[in-house]
Amino acid sequence: MERFAVIGLGRFGERLATLLAESGAEVIAIDSDQEIIDEIRDRVALAVCMDATNEEALRAQGIDKVDVAVVGLGTAFEDNALVTVLLKQLGVPRVVSRAATAIRAQILSRIGARSIRLDIRPVAAIPPTPAGKHVLVRRIHHDPAQRDAYRELIEEKMAA
After folding, report:
1. Distance (Å, whole) CA 135 – CA 100
2. pLDDT at 72
3. What is the pTM of this model?
C-alpha cells in the first residue's frame, strides 16, 4: 500500500485525501486549521494540525517516509513552494504541487515538483465514489497539463 501525504485541506486537498483513503491508500492529512483536521480525522489514517513549513514538524509526522506528497496550498504560493522544497529535501520520492497559474506551475516544476494547474471548483463538486472517480479521470484526460501529474495519482489508486 502506498503512503500519501496531502498538505492543505481546502476543497481540493480534502477531496483528494478522502478519495485516496477510500481507495485503500494510507493518507496523512495536514492542515493548519484544527476544525478542518477534526472534520477529516475519521476518514484518513492520520490527520495533523501543524505548520507544514516547519521541516522538523514534517519529519516528526513521518512525512519523509511517504511515497507521494501532494501540496494543495494553491493560493499561498510562497508556502506552497517552501513546502515543496522541504519535501524534496526530506527525500519524498514524488511531490505534486498544485498551482493556480501556468507560471507558478513552471516554477514548481523547476524546484522539483510534478506541478499541476487545476481549477478546484469542478473537483470539489465530484462525489467520492467510483462514478466520481471516472468523471475526474475524464476531466484530467481532457487537459494534458493535468493528465501527466494526476493520472497516476488517481487512476492507479482509485480502482472502481
Report:
1. 21
2. 86
3. 0.74
